Amino acid sequence: MGNESGEETDQFFDGNYLGYVTPWGVKGKEYAVNYAHKLSLISPVWYVLRNNDDEEEGIELAGAHEYDEQWIKKLKQTAKKRCTKQRGTQCSEGPKIVPRFSWEITSLTEGYFVFHIGNMLC
């Protein structure tokens, strides 16, 4: 983050910062890498839970193709390098990646929904 002159300032906050990265945000991945040393958690929007037309009450997990291992590696390396340089001590490996799930489910009973979502995520 910068000041009025555009220079980056060193501000430390002991709390957590969460950043979202969306596929429709053109520069989202770039900003996440540039500011990863200031973030605790990054939540990319990768996965979608939606109705599966092949089953009567089934759901599917889509979006695995959005997972970007090279971007995660770059993000963590850049964060560690910038944080260590900024603070003068060895820093952790960067922010934790916490994928965000979007829901496109239209008609499931509550019990079915809870049971199957739990099984998919475990």
How is this structure best described in words?
The protein is of the alpha/beta class and 122 residues long. The chain has one domain (18-121): Glycosidases (TIM Barrel). The protein is built from three helices and five strands; from the N terminus they run βαββαββα. It has helices at 28-34, 69-87, 110-121, and strands spanning 18-21, 41-52, 58-62, 96-97, 100-104. Strands 1, 2, 3, 4 and 5 form a five-stranded mixed beta sheet that branches. A hairpin with a 5-residue loop joins strand 2 and strand 3 (58-62). Helix 1 (28-34) runs parallel beside helix 2 (69-87). The N and C termini lie far apart (37 Å).
Which helices and strands appear, and what pairs or packs with what?
Elements: E1 18-21, H1 28-34, E2 41-52, E3 58-62, H2 69-87, E4 96-97, E5 100-104, H3 110-121
Parallel strand pairs: 1-2, 2-4, 2-5
Antiparallel strand pairs: 2-3
Helix pairs in contact: 1-2
Label this structure with key terms.
122 residues; 3 helices; elongated
